[in-house]
Amino acid sequence: MISRLHLLRFVDGRSVLHRAGARAKVLVLIGLVFGLSFNPSWISVGAVWGTVVVGIVIGRLGAGVVPRPPKPLLAAIGISLVFGLLSGGEPFVSVGSSDVGLGGILLQLRLFGVTLGLLGLTLLLGWTTRSADLPPAASWIMAPLTRVGVPTGEVIAALTLAVRALPLVADDFATVAAMSRTEPKGGSQIDKGMMVLSTAAVASVRRASEFGQAIDGRGMDAPVARHPRWNTADLIVMIVGAMLVAVVALAPGA
Predict the structure, then answer these.
(1) What is this structure's pTM?
(2) N or C end of the chain: smaller count of CB under 10 Å?
(3) Taking the chain (254 residues) in consecutive chunks of 10 residues, what is each chunk's mean pLDDT?
(4) What is the count of structural domains for the chain?
(5) Runs of H (alpha helix) within the chain
(6) What is the domain range of residue 178?
(7) Residue 57 Rama label (left phi>0; alpha psi -120 to 50; beta)
């Protein structure tokens, strides 16, 4: 399931999104996250979803990059929507001789819209940005915080490890999930669960050991890189991103 999301898996291309630097795209992402957090209106949610769809089209990523939601997630969403419908609330619609409140289910739908919209923005960033470019971009963005005593070097080092480890961890979980599906039928569910947990623990320890050896050999210093100069693609992304942030933050309705 995790591997289907293609977390931080760069999709090669020559679109304006691919040519734009990581700094511009991360700044736009931060602006959209803050704008949507403070104003999660339907217009804001629609603007974020539209950004993801247009970004996929402009980046020529193809429909194959869009993840297929796992069935347990769809089941959980369906159950939560049922509870939201049962909770009622304004507005009300007449169904036969009774009024049914749609407030709960509309709130649930908006919550899912915000969550999945932010996930889509993150995936769009990963599809159009090389993972090696993200830590230097974060270092540039967080540079002013060093003046107030924030240990940005340690934060960037941890971010670098997380970015590099996330695809590997996703592959490990996908391997464990595949192994669990190939287990012969029969036996108790507890035994199967213990087998999956032990396999995941072994894979995690092995991956942690590899990272520990890499840190001992190379050190854990923050990445030092010369940032490329701002280009036309950066300017386009920043201008369009500023307009989108304004629409998301100032959209009417809550």
Answers:
(1) 0.76
(2) C
(3) 55 90 91 89 92 91 77 83 79 71 83 89 89 82 82 76 71 70 65 72 75 64 60 92 92 73
(4) 1
(5) 16-19, 22-38, 42-58, 71-87, 103-128, 134-142, 152-181, 189-218, 232-250
(6) 3-250
(7) alpha
